[in-house]
UniProtKB/TrEMBL annotation:
Domain Endonuclease/exonuclease/phosphatase span(s) in chain numbering: 31-241
Name the record gives this protein: Endonuclease/exonuclease/phosphatase family protein
Pfam annotation, one family: Exo_endo_phos
Signal peptide: none
Lineage: Bacteria, Pseudomonadati, Pseudomonadota, Gammaproteobacteria, Pseudomonadales
A GO MF label: endonuclease activity
Annotated keywords: Endonuclease, Hydrolase, Nuclease
Domain of life: Bacteria
């Protein structure tokens, strides 16, 4: 029997498909080392590539597995991938890396219209000593009316879960107008960990001069401790978004 755990360490990061801002340099190996250094138990990834045939031919250090498998390596034994966008050269979407067994997962398509493809990756984790932990990796749309519809779909998903189950919803909300907070508090009973601890959401975009509060970690039925913005080097040079990390007491 595994030793019961009371604390889960969480990291969320928009990987920008393994490239620096403006796609100037391929830095996935550097990103893997940075992700490892955090020591997170569960990692929420957005804009991660499943495949890309042209990039594989162009870059000598391109991994021979998917980006999420490359990032997981031998540290995170379980992973889930939700393919959202598919194009001639490959595909990308959301992914979850977990040190705990993933008993099931499902990618909910929340694309509204047009070419922009979005999804909610819902995974169920088996944390020793606890019932199911629900982890939902989010990347919402760029248009406000799309985001509002996607938030309602997210609320529907959370409302379908047991009311006493621990829930983590993390990722890139693209919510620069700060409309998601009231919606998720009222319809799903979630609170945002930076908002609860520091009284304001974290500034994460653009990474080198963060002005917009786009990335979030919402939770329910857990206690958040020590949320931090990973804003120093190398993080400020590894994506166009800054990652967020937090400890959660179950």
């Amino acid at each position: 029997m595994a030793t019961p755990l009371d604390t889960v360490r969480v990291l969320t990061v928009n990987t920008h498909k393994g490239f620096t801002a403006l796609n100037r340099r391929f830095i996935l190996p550097e990103l893997r080392e940075a992700v490892r250094s955090v020591g997170a138990d569960v990692v929420f990834l957005q804009e991660v590539l499943g495949t890309h045939e042209k990039h594989a031919l162009r870059f000598a250090d391109w991994p021979n597995v998917s980006q999420y498998e490359f990032l997981a390596d031998s540290i995170w034994t379980d992973f889930a991938y939700g393919r959202n966008a598919v194009y001639p050269d490959g595909d990308h979407g959301n992914a979850l890396l977990s040190k705990f067994p993933i008993s099931q997962y499902e990618n909910l398509d929340v694309s509204i219209s047009g070419p922009e493809r979005r999804g909610l990756l819902h995974s169920v984790l088996q944390v020793p000593g606890h019932d199911n932990l629900h982890a939902i990796c989010v990347h919402l749309g760029l248009r406000e009316n799309h985001r509002q519809q996607q938030l309602r779909l997210l609320c529907d998903l959370i409302d379908s879960l047991p009311p006493d189950a621990p829930v983590i919803v993390a990722g890139d909300f693209n919510d620069w107008r700060l409309k998601a907070r009231n919606v998720l508090e009222s319809c799903a009973g979630l609170y945002e960990v930076f908002d609860r601890t520091h009284g304001e959401l974290a500034k994460t975009f653009p990474a080198r001069w963060p002005l917009l509060r786009l990335d979030r970690i919402y939770v329910r039925n857990v206690e958040a401790r020590n949320p931090v913005i990973l804003g120093n080097k190398p993080w400020s040079h590894l994506s166009d978004h800054l990652p967020l990390a937090v400890e959660l007491k179950l």
